[in-house]
Amino acid sequence: ALKSEMVEVRSAGQAANCVHHVFALGGTDEDQRIHFSAECLDPDENRFSLRAPMQ
Q: Cys-Cys crosslink for 27: which of 10, 20, 53, 54, Cβ 3.0 to 4.6 Å?
């Protein structure tokens, strides 16, 4: 089981799976600010990392 936490708290975002990685995109934080960020989960490393923003 993965126990890694995301870099940024987000809800209402989207997720996609590509080549054994999971990408978390967009969403809002606890103050309802919109995220333009993207994170990638590498299951081999068991950690999330930030990617280039979508904006």
A: 10
pLDDT in tens, 5-35: 889 989 999 999 999 999 999 999 999 999 9
DSSP state of 43: T
**Is 37 in a helix, a strand, or coil?**
coil
What does the alpha-carbon distance between residue 19 and residue 36 come to, in Å, rounded to a whole number? 22
Domain boundaries, the chain: 1-55
- Residue 42 has phi, psi (to 5 degrees) of -100, 105
Residue 26 contacts residue 32 (beta carbons within 8 Å): no
| Angstrom distance (rounded) from CA 12 to CA 27 | 5
Cβ pair 3, 46 in contact under 8 A:
yes
DSSP-assigned letter for residue 7: S
